[in-house]
């Protein structure tokens, strides 16, 4: 049997329904001179409805409690997302210079070659085709082979017994130093003899003595070059990093005569 109490959708309607039911029961009791069986049945029905209402209220309280917990979690999640967004923005604007690229771009000599070629193209209407070709060929010969940075995947592929406790950034730092040495060395070797000082001529002669048939076409450095043109200290850690670069085919060793070891850059 549907009653006002069972169909109430608001607390106000529920209150009014209960008051109406109690009023009806009171009238019935006064007219009959006491509580009859039908009145007892009605009271039992109301008691059942009140039990249902109590259960619904408890269920509503539980739902509200869970909703409050979800709201707190959402606020914390929002804070985490905002912090993550700030970190990503910071990373985006502070990308490390060690990120590898498909093509080496770290050499200023390479940039200079590109600039010279572009200038030749811009001014080609004022230069004969043969002269432009000669200038481009001459510029191309100035490009120095440099070592590309290694990737995280490559670094992690190196056996643990080779890399030991070395860090990824350390290996790419030594790549910078070797490239710096290569550029300084071969810039000196290409310097016109008439413009070289006595000290530079001695260095050029020493560098020429390092060459042999096996190094033809290679750009390489030796320990003395690294001491002269880089900030590296040739300690065991640096030796380990050179081994890592050899393992990853960034360097190749050319030995001899005697204890001389050349580290040749590989494309």
What features would you describe in this structure?
Keywords: Coiled coil. Residues 112-125 have a biased composition (Basic and acidic residues). Belongs to the SKA1 family. One of its GO terms (cellular component) is spindle microtubule. The structure is a single chain. This protein is mainly α. It has 2 domains: 4-93; 145-265, Orthogonal Bundle (Arc Repressor Mutant, subunit A). It contains 11 helices and 3 strands. It has helices at 4-7, 11-32, 37-93, 108-122, 129-140, 152-157, 160-163, 168-189, 198-209, 223-229, 236-247; strands at residues 220-221, 251-255, 261-265. It has a 3-stranded antiparallel β-sheet. The termini are far apart. Mean pLDDT is 79; it is low at 103-110, 127-134 and 136-141.
């Amino acid at each position: 049997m549907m009653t006002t109490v069972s169909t109430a959708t608001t607390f106000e309607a529920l209150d009014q329904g209960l008051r109406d039911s109690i009023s009806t029961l009171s009238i019935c009791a006064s007219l009959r001179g006491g509580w009859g069986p039908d009145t007892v049945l009605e009271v039992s029905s109301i008691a059942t409805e009140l039990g249902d209402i109590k259960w619904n209220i408890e269920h509503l309280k539980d739902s509200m409690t869970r909703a409050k917990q979800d709201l707190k979690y959402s606020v914390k999640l929002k804070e985490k997302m905002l912090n993550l967004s700030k970190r990503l923005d910071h990373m985006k604007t502070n990308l490390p210079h060690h990120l590898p690229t498909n093509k080496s771009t770290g050499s200023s000599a390479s940039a200079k070659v590109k600039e010279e070629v572009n200038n030749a193209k811009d001014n080609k209407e004022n230069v004969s085709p043969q002269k432009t070709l000669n200038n481009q060929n001459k510029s191309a010969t100035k490009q120095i082979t440099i070592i590309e940075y290694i990737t995280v995947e490559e670094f992690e592929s190196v056996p643990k017994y080779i890399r030991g406790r070395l860090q990824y950034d350390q290996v790419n730092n030594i790549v910078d130093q070797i490239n710096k040495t290569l550029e300084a060395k071969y810039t000196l070797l290409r310097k016109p003899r008439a413009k070289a000082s006595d000290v530079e001529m001695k260095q050029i002669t020493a560098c020429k003595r390092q060459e042999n048939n096996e190094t033809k076409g290679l750009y390489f450095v030796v320990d003395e070059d690294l001491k002269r043109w880089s900030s590296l200290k040739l300690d065991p850690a640096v030796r380990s990093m050179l081994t890592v670069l050899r393992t990853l085919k960034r360097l190749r060793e050319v030995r001899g005569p005697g204890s001389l070891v050349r580290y040749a850059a590989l494309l």
